[in-house]
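Run log // design_07
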């Protein structure tokens, strides 16, 4: 059956998370005919899918919000220091309706194929239901963490109880009351969900392979004074955030650890612990390059864990010893470690005694079996490349993204890919993305791409493509800066290490969000250095 084809548009955006929504707003304002295609039946991306108990942001709400509209900044009221998922999803819906975006979003439509034609310079996208869409440009706003990873544990489909994934949580409330629950995984999602599941369940078994470092959020209601401070100073604060390495205020440090006396080191670590959240990541400016500096912060957090957890053996198991602090994403929690003092919570060490299989009744490890009513897979995502690789994307000469990225992602600036003309990515691999406040990273990419499209329109240019040389140089640079850090020694999802068979490459750009922004501006300022253009066909 021939696919049903719709008229050719200027631009198709895939994904209606924060990136897709801002793209639609911006491109429409600039006069481009734009359609957004979204697999879900609503907007919000991450915040649409991740509805597990406790899901909330780990960048403070006042900063984890769009900066493109001053009236939106002033009107929206965040109620907590770190907003919970329902509030962030409500914000995404508010933005959608406030700017009239919904009518140009096609929901319940998964893009499975995207093919570039060298004959007419157009992209054709195919959906899972056989629909076909044509456009001159495609912008992949697929998100870095939108392809949930379900581990291939033997017997997993035989489990007779309910099995949930944090990244694919049901819309109806899940009630664990009176149930024996197993959570597999101890990353950020698990760290947020575990305290709340423990409050409800009759018993909770936490299956831990690798402990992570978690810092208290000290979450609470947002007081009027700090809201007013943000709202009165938004322009200054946003501009300041853009000059930082992560887009997050109060994070960067002016000192390497060795410059400080032991007392001052401790004071700084304690100050950051008391402030709470991600800022522990940069307690010293050499924390991700000098193992000794890193160990100061790591041992500080381990001491805190031992202070909180009463049972000595459980505390030891919760203390990360196998990776530098921050080389896996820091977790931000409310009462995570305290939860292991509850009578109804058991920490199961699956590093020493791995899960052998899942049976109809529950989980069987190499030395025990655990009868369960429900399993929660908090097992993460095929991050950064996963969402792109799930689509059969074909560029020049039919080259597939699967082949192009078979040894790891290759991009220019994390925005474009050689052999794939007129295709852009938002927060793609090779950009700071997940190492920063992602909302600021999204806005930077959307603005850059929009400016580039205007430049092309103004100059009668039809086709843009990253050159092979520029891409090779960028990939080399991304790898060079990563190799000078402690990130590459860790089995993190940044390295692709969480997915069996995935190439081990550090995927985000660790050279700093502010530096990166400058580099992108230099590229556009030099007439899009590293890109080749073609005039009208
Ligand atoms: P997403 O929100 O992932 O949206 C991508 C959209 O594309 C999805 O709706 C998806 O359905 C759609 N899509 C994907 N593939 C297809 C396809 N083939 N066809 C059609 N549609 C498709 N970042 C921070 O900076 N601070 C935080 O506090 C923070 N907290 C997080 C908490 C969780 C639980 C998770 C998982 C991530 C968090 N992140 C955080 C990262 C977060 O992903 C980004 O902040 C941001 O929401 C990403 O927006 P996005 O639009 O780029 O991608
Ligand atoms: P994650 O960090 O990748 O954690 C996955 C966990 O599952 C790890 O503990 C992992 O153990 C375990 N796991 C995976 N496969 C397993 C298997 N086969 N058997 C046993 N254990 C297994 O995933 P996530 O927690 O969903 O977080 C992903 C990212 O999303 C975060 O790093 C963060 O960027 C974002 N996020 C943010 C927040 C927030 O606070 N705002 C909340 C959630 C997510 P190993 O380490 O041993 O592989």
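design_07 sequence
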């Amino acid at each position: 059956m021939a696919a049903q084809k719709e008229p050719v548009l200027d631009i198709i955006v895939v994904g209606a998370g924060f990136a897709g929504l801002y793209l639609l707003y911006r491109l429409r304002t600039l006069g481009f005919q734009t359609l957004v295609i979204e697999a879900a039946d609503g907007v919000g991306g991450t915040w649409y899918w991740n509805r597990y108990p406790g899901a909330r942001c780990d960048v403070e709400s006042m900063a984890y919000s769009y900066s493109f509209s001053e009236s939106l900044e002033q009107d929206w009221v965040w109620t907590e220091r770190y907003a919970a998922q329902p509030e962030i999803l409500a914000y995404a819906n508010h933005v959608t309706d406030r700017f009239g975006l919904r009518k140009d979003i096609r929901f319940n439509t998964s893009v499975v194929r995207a093919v570039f034609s060298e004959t007419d310079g157009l992209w054709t996208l195919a959906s899972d239901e056989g629909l076909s869409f044509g456009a001159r440009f495609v912008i992949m706003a697929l998100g870095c963490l939108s392809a949930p990873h379900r581990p291939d544990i033997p017997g997993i489909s035989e489990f007779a109880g309910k099995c949930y994934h944090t990244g694919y949580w049901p819309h109806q409330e899940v009630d664990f009351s009176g149930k024996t629950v197993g959570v597999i995984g101890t990353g950020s999602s698990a760290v947020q969900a575990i305290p709340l599941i423990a409050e409800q369940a009759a018993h909770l078994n936490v299956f831990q392979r690798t402990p992570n470092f978690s810092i208290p959020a000290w979450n609470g209601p947002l007081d009027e004074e700090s809201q007013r401070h943000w709202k009165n100073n938004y322009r200054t604060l946003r501009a300041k955030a853009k000059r930082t390495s992560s887009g997050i205020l109060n994070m960067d440090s002016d000192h390497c650890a060795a410059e400080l006396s032991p007392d001052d080191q401790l004071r700084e670590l304690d100050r950051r612990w008391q402030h709470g959240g991600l800022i522990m990541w940069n307690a010293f400016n050499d924390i991700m390059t000098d193992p000794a500096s890193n160990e100061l912060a790591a041992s500080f957090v381990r001491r805190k864990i031992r202070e909180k957890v009463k049972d000595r053996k459980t505390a030891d198991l919760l203390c990360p010893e196998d990776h530098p602090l921050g080389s896996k994403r820091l977790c931000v929690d409310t009462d995570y470690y305290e939860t292991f003092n509850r009578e109804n919570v058991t920490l199961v060490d699956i590093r020493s005694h791995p899960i052998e299989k899942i049976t109809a009744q529950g989980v069987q490890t190499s030395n025990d079996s655990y009868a369960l009513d429900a399993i929660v897979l908090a097992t993460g995502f095929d991050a950064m490349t996963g969402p792109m690789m799930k689509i059969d994307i074909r560029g020049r000469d039919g080259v597939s993204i699967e082949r192009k990225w078979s040894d790891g992602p290759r991009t220019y600036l994390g925005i474009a890919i050689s052999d794939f003309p007129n295709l852009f990515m938002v927060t793609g691999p090779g950009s700071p993305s997940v190492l920063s406040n992602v909302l600021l990273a999204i806005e930077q990419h959307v603005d850059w791409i929009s400016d580039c499209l205007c430049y092309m329109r103004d100059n009668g240019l039809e086709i843009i493509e990253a050159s092979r040389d520029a891409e090779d140089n960028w990939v080399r640079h991304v790898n060079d800066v990563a190799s000078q850090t402690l990130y590459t020694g860790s089995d993190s999802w940044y390295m692709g290490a969480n997915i069996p068979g995935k190439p081990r490459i550090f995927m985000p750009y660790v050279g700093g969000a502010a530096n990166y922004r400058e580099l992108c501006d230099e590229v556009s300022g030099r007439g899009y250095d590293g890109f080749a253009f073609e005039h009208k066909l």
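The mean pLDDT is 97.
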